[in-house]
Specification:
Layout: H1 3-6, E1 33-48, E2 53-69, E3 73-77, H2 84-91, E4 99-104, E5 107-108, H3 114-123, E6 124-127, H4 141-152, H5 160-170, H6 187-199, E7 205-209, H7 217-234, E8 237-242, H8 245-248, E9 254-259, E10 262-268, H9 269-274, H10 279-287, E11 304-305, H11 330-334, E12 340-343, E13 346-348, H12 368-372, E14 374-375, H13 379-397
Parallel strand pairs: 3-8, 3-9, 6-7, 7-8
Antiparallel strand pairs: 1-2, 1-4, 4-5, 9-10, 10-13, 11-14, 12-13
Helix pairs in contact: 4-5, 4-6, 5-6, 6-7, 7-13
The structure holds adenosine-5'-triphosphate.
Length: 415
C-alpha cells in the first residue's frame, strides 16, 4: 500500500495541551519508548452492607512496570484472572488506575480527564475479544467503522463513507458490504470489522485483548496474519493479550508473563523460548508445545499446573506463585522477589529461576506443596494447543497476501 493510500486525512484538531515534563515532541522512531508504565495498580473495591462499606479489594493489577517500544509487538500472557484485561484497560485509559503512572510519548496520561484524553484516544485503540458482543447489532458496518470519525469530529478527505470503504478493503472485507449488519458476517469477519474500527483514526498503539480466542483455529491464523501485515504496512505498535502462548509466540517481539496482578517474567521472545526463567513461564510453555517431533523425548519437561490461580482478593504472601510452584522453599513464602534483569533482555522475579543461578541457594528445603505442585502432561492434553500453535505458525510464516474473507456467507467452521 502506498503512503498516499494509507494516509487518513484528518484535519488539525488544535494541539493538545502539553503536560509539563513532556519529553517527546515528534513521533517516536522505531525502537523508542512509546508507552511507559510504572508501579501501575488497579484495586477494585469490594463493598458490603447497607452503607456499602469497603471490606476489601480485588488486587487485579498490583504494581507492574514495563515499556512498549515503537513498532514492536509486546505479547502479554497469563491464565484467566491474572489481570491482563485490566492492564489493557488501564493503558488505554478505559479504567482509572489506583496507583502508578502511564506515560504515552513521554506525556503523563495517568489521570487525564475526558476532554484532555480526547486527542489521545486517536493514538491508542483497543480491539476486544468477542467479535459477537463488541459490535452493536442494530448498526450497519458503515456506522460502526465510521463512529470514531463522528466521535472525534473528524471529516476524512473524500468523506466518511469513502474512508470507511477504504478501511474495509484494508482489512480484507468487501467495501460494498458497507450497509450490512454484524449478524450477516462470520466471527472472523466481525473481528476484521473491529480491527477496521480500531484503525480508523490512524492509531499509534493498538491493544488487542484476546483478539482471536473466540474464533475457530483456522480463522485465528488468518486474523493474526492480518494484524501482522497491518503492523508492517502501517507501522503500528501492538500489545497483544492472550491466555496462552500459542498465539503470541509467533507475532511478539517481547513477551510479558503475568501472574496474579504481577509481571513475573519479561523477555525477548527468543530468550523466553530458548530458556524460560520463571517456573510459571515454563509451565505455560509446557502446556503449549512446539509441534516438533524431536521434543517428544522431552516429555518429562512438560509440566501441568495444578489448581486454579489463587484469589486476587488476598494473594499469597512472598512470591504469589509459591502455592503452585514445584521449586518453592521457605523464602518464597515470605520475601517477594523483585523483577530483575538476570540476563540481557530477560527480566524475572524468582528466587529459584530456571536456566540461571539460584538467587537463594541457602534455601534448599522444598515446601510440601512444592512436591505436589506439578505433574506430567499426557500428549492428548497438549494436542489442541499444538494445533493452534501450528496453524498460526504456518500462516504467519507464509509470505502471501492476507487471505480475503470477502464472502459474507457464514463460514460453517466459524461459530
Ligand atoms: N470491574 C471489576 N470489578 C471487580 N473485579 C474485577 C473487575 N474487573 C476485573 N475484576 C477482577 O480482577 C481480576 C483480574 O481480571 P482480568 O479480567 O483483568 O483478568 P484476565 O487475566 O484478563 O482474565 P480473563 O482472561 O479471564 O479476562 C479478576 O479476579 C476479576 O474478577
Amino acid at each position: 500500500m502506498s503512503d498516499d493510500e494509507k494516509a487518513v486525512t484528518i484535519p488539525a484538531q488544535g494541539d493538545a495541551p502539553k503536560e509539563e515534563g513532556a519529553t517527546l515532541t515528534k513521533d517516536p522512531a522505531p525502537g523508542e519508548v512509546l508507552l511507559r508504565v510504572s508501579g501501575l495498580k488497579k484495586h477494585f473495591p469490594i463493598k458490603k452492607g447497607l452503607l456499602q462499606r469497603q471490606v476489601g479489594a480485588v488486587h487485579a493489577v498490583d504494581g507492574i512496570d514495563f515499556e512498549v517500544r515503537s513498532g514492536e509487538t509486546l505479547g502479554v500472557v497469563g491464565e484467566s484472572g491474572c489481570g491482563k484485561s485490566t492492564m489493557g484497560r488501564l493503558i488505554t485509559r478505559l479504567l482509572e488506575p489506583t496507583a502508578g503512572k502511564v506515560e504515552f510519548e513521554g506525556r503523563d496520561i495517568t489521570h487525564l480527564g475526558v476532554s484532555a484524553m480526547r486527542p489521545m484516544r486517536r493514538d491508542v485503540q483497543m480491539i476486544f475479544q468477542d467479535p459477537y458482543s463488541s459490535l452493536n447489532p442494530r448498526h450497519t458496518i458503515g456506522t460502526i467503522v465510521g463512529a470514531p470519525f463522528k466521535l472525534q469530529g473528524v471529516e476524512p478527505e473524500g468523506g466518511i463513507k469513502k474512508e470507511v470503504q477504504r478501511l474495509l478493503e484494508v482489512v480484507g472485507l468487501n467495501p460494498e458490504h458497507y450497509n450490512r449488519y454484524p449478524h450477516e458476517f462470520s466471527g472472523g469477519q466481525r473481528q476484521r470489522i473491529g480491527i477496521a474500527r480500531a484503525l480508523a483514526l490512524n492509531p499509534k498503539l493498538v491493544v488487542a485483548d484476546e483478539p482471536v480466542s473466540a474464533l475457530d483455529v483456522s480463522i485465528q491464523a488468518q486474523v493474526v496474519n492480518l494484524l501482522d501485515d497491518l503492523q508492517q504496512e502501517l507501522g503500528l505498535t501492538y500489545v497483544i493479550i492472550a491466555h496462552d502462548l500459542s498465539v503470541v509466540r509467533h507475532v511478539s517481539d517481547r513477551i510479558a508473563v503475568m501472574y496474579l496482578g504481577k509481571i513475573v517474567e519479561l523477555s525477548d521472545r527468543d530468550s523466553l523460548y530458548k530458556a524460560p526463567m520463571h517456573p510459571y513461564t515454563k509451565a505455560l510453555m509446557s502446556a503449549v508445545p512446539i509441534p516438533d517431533p524431536r521434543r517428544k523425548a522431552a516429555k518429562s519437561e512438560r509440566i501441568l499446573l495444578k489448581g486454579d490461580v489463587p484469589s486476587p482478593i488476598s494473594p499469597p504472601s512472598g512470591c504469589r506463585f509459591h502455592t503452585r510452584c514445584w521449586k518453592a522453599t521457605q523464602i518464597c513464602t515470605t520475601v517477594e522477589p523483585p523483577l530483575v534483569e538476570l540476563k540481557p533482555g530477560q527480566q524475572v522475579a524468582c528466587h529459584h529461576p530456571e536456566n540461571f543461578a539460584d538467587q537463594a541457594p541457602q534455601d534448599t528445603v522444598l515446601l510440601t506443596v512444592a512436591k505436589e505442585a506439578a505433574e506430567l502432561v499426557a500428549d492428548e492434553v497438549l494436542a489442541e494447543s499444538a494445533e493452534t500453535s501450528a496453524a498460526v505458525a504456518a500462516e504467519v510464516t507464509k509470505e502471501t497476501d492476507v487471505t480475503k474473507e470477502t464472502d459474507v456467507t457464514k463460514d460453517a467452521n466459524d461459530k
